[in-house]
Write a structure and sequence with these properties.
- With 243 residues, the chain is α/β, with parallel strands linked by helices.
- It has one domain: P-loop containing nucleotide triphosphate hydrolases (Rossmann fold, 3-Layer(aba) Sandwich).
- It contains 8 helices and 7 strands.
- It has a 7-stranded mixed sheet with strand order 1-3-4-2-5-6-7, sandwiched between helices.
- The longest helix has 17 residues.
- The chain is globular.
- The structure holds guanosine-5'-triphosphate (GTP) and magnesium ion (MG).
- Guanosine-5'-triphosphate (GTP) binds next to helix 3.
- The site of magnesium ion has 6 residues, from helix 3.
Length: 243
Amino acid sequence: MSNSPNPKAAAPSVKNPSPPEKSAATIALGWLHTARFLTTAPQLHFLPELDVPEIAFVGRSNAGKSTCINTLTQQKQLAFASKKPGRTQHINLFALGKQGGTDAVLTDLPGYGYAAVPKQDKIRWQQVMANYLVTRQNLKAIVLMCDPRHGMTELDEILLDVIRPRVEEGLKFLVILTKADKLTRTEGAKVLSITKLQAGGGEVRLFSATKRTGIDEVATLLWDWAHPDAPLAEVATAAPADT
Ligand SMILES: Nc1nc2c(ncn2[C@@H]2O[C@H](COP(=O)(O)OP(=O)(O)OP(=O)(O)O)[C@@H](O)[C@H]2O)c(=O)[nH]1
Ligand SMILES: [Mg+2]
C-alpha cells in the first residue's frame, strides 16, 4: 500500500468532515488531563480555602490512590506513587479546568493503616483525616480506594461512619476497587456485589491502572459530580470535537 502509484486513491475522504461528537468519556478525560499541582499541606489548617468542588481520594496505604490520580489525569508523575507504603505524606491538591479557570480540585491524601507507622503518628493522622472529611467546606465527593483482595477493612468502615452524616446531606461517595487486574472475572463480580452492599448507597466501580479498566466510567462520574449543572449525558451530545 505504501508505494501505491496513486496516493490520492489511498487517502480517506476527510475533506469536509462533519465535526464528530465528543463522547462523554472524552470530555471527562480531557478535563482531568488539565490537572496541575496546586499546593501541598502537612496539616489541615495550611490548606487554602477554596470555592470550587473538591474530590478527595482516601484509603489504606498502598491501595493505589496516587496511581489512580495519575491514570485518570493521564500524567505519569503528577501524584507520587510508590511500591513503598506511606509514600504520600502530605495533603496534595491538584487543580482542574482551563488555566485561570479552575473548576474543581482533586486531593491526594496520605493512606492509613500502614503497620510500620508509630502509633502516635497513626492516631494523629486519623484525626487530621477525620477533621478534613468532616469540616472541609467545599468537599463535594469522596473516592475511597480499596484493594479488593482485602475488601473493606475496619479502618475503611470507620471512615464510612465518619462521613455518613455528610453523605446523607448530599456528599457524593465512590468506592473504587483497585488492582482489578489481580482478580478473575468471577472474583471481580463477586467483590463488586459485596462492596455495593457495604457502600451504603455510594457508587462502586472496579478499576485497574495496568489493564486500564474502569477509567472512562470513573472519569465521567467525577465530571458529573463536579459539574452538576452540566451533566455529560446532556453536554456530550451537544459538543463538537474541536471546541
Ligand atoms: N497491579 C496493579 N498495581 C497497582 C495498581 N494501582 C496501583 N498499583 C501499585 O500499587 C502500589 C501503591 O500505589 P500508590 O498509588 O503509591 O498507592 P497509594 O494509595 O497512593 O499509597 P500511599 O501514598 O502510601 O497511601 C504501587 O506499586 C503501584 O504500582 C493497579 O491498578 N494494578
Ligand atoms: Mg499515595
